């Protein structure tokens, strides 16, 4: 499935009778057009530039609504703040264990995910979340530089 654009997502929500205030539209547009995976606080800061009076509660409520409608995804990482992903297609993530950066990557074909064990259990997949953890290029480069110049 290809990632839905802001325009496609907006049309989909309107066709479902969802009330779209200007604040909701700006939040949706930001998430659909960014490659980043911001926290609610980061969304609040970004949207606050356009809507200085917007409350953090409005941002949280809008993110929750968009998540429940399946337009965005929430990525939880234990005790760290959740991040939000405007990419509604099936894809995997690279997560840097040092700086926390999250990147989208293409996921393996469904045949690789639906293993014989899944089939034997009689389980029907509706969705999945695939993440790879490690060190991003920037952190790796920084660590290599630090090691080379250590006394």
UniProtKB/TrEMBL annotation:
<feature type="binding site">
    <location>
        <position position="99"/>
    </location>
    <ligand>
        <name>Zn(2+)</name>
    </ligand>
</feature>
<dbReference type="Pfam" id="PF01475">
    <property type="entry name" value="FUR"/>
</dbReference>
<dbReference type="GO" id="GO:0000976">
    <property type="term" value="F:transcription cis-regulatory region binding"/>
</dbReference>
<dbReference type="GO" id="GO:0045892">
    <property type="term" value="P:negative regulation of DNA-templated transcription"/>
</dbReference>
<keyword id="KW-0678">Repressor</keyword>
<dbReference type="InterPro" id="IPR036388">
    <property type="entry name" value="WH-like_DNA-bd_sf"/>
</dbReference>
<feature type="binding site">
    <location>
        <position position="136"/>
    </location>
    <ligand>
        <name>Zn(2+)</name>
    </ligand>
</feature>
<keyword id="KW-0862">Zinc</keyword>
<feature type="binding site">
    <location>
        <position position="139"/>
    </location>
    <ligand>
        <name>Zn(2+)</name>
    </ligand>
</feature>
<dbReference type="GO" id="GO:0008270">
    <property type="term" value="F:zinc ion binding"/>
</dbReference>
<keyword id="KW-0408">Iron</keyword>
<feature type="binding site">
    <location>
        <position position="111"/>
    </location>
    <ligand>
        <name>Fe cation</name>
    </ligand>
</feature>
<dbReference type="GO" id="GO:0003700">
    <property type="term" value="F:DNA-binding transcription factor activity"/>
</dbReference>
<dbReference type="InterPro" id="IPR036390">
    <property type="entry name" value="WH_DNA-bd_sf"/>
</dbReference>
<dbReference type="InterPro" id="IPR043135">
    <property type="entry name" value="Fur_C"/>
</dbReference>
<dbReference type="GO" id="GO:1900376">
    <property type="term" value="P:regulation of secondary metabolite biosynthetic process"/>
</dbReference>
<feature type="binding site">
    <location>
        <position position="96"/>
    </location>
    <ligand>
        <name>Zn(2+)</name>
    </ligand>
</feature>
<keyword id="KW-0238">DNA-binding</keyword>
<dbReference type="InterPro" id="IPR002481">
    <property type="entry name" value="FUR"/>
</dbReference>
<keyword id="KW-0805">Transcription regulation</keyword>
<protein>
    <recommendedName>
        <fullName>Transcriptional repressor</fullName>
    </recommendedName>
</protein>
<comment type="similarity">
    <text>Belongs to the Fur family.</text>
</comment>
<keyword id="KW-0804">Transcription</keyword>
<keyword id="KW-0479">Metal-binding</keyword>
């Amino acid at each position: 499935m290809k990632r839905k654009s802001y325009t496609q997502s907006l049309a989909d929500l309107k066709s479902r009778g969802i009330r779209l205030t200007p604040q909701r539209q700006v939040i949706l547009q930001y998430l659909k057009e960014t490659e980043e995976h911001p926290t609610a606080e980061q969304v609040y800061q970004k949207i606050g530039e356009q809507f200085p009076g917007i409350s953090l509660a409005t941002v949280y409520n809008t993110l929750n609504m968009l998540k429940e409608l399946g337009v965005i995804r929430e990525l939880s990482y234990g005790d760290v703040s959740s991040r939000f992903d405007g990419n509604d297609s099936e894809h995997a993530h690279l997560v840097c264990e040092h700086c926390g950066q999250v990147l989208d990557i293409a996921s393996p074909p469904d045949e690789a995910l639906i293993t014989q064990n899944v089939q034997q259990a009689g389980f029907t997949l509706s969705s999945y979340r695939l993440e790879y953890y490690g060190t991003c290029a920037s952190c790796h480069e920084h660590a290599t530089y630090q090691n080379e110049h250590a006394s």
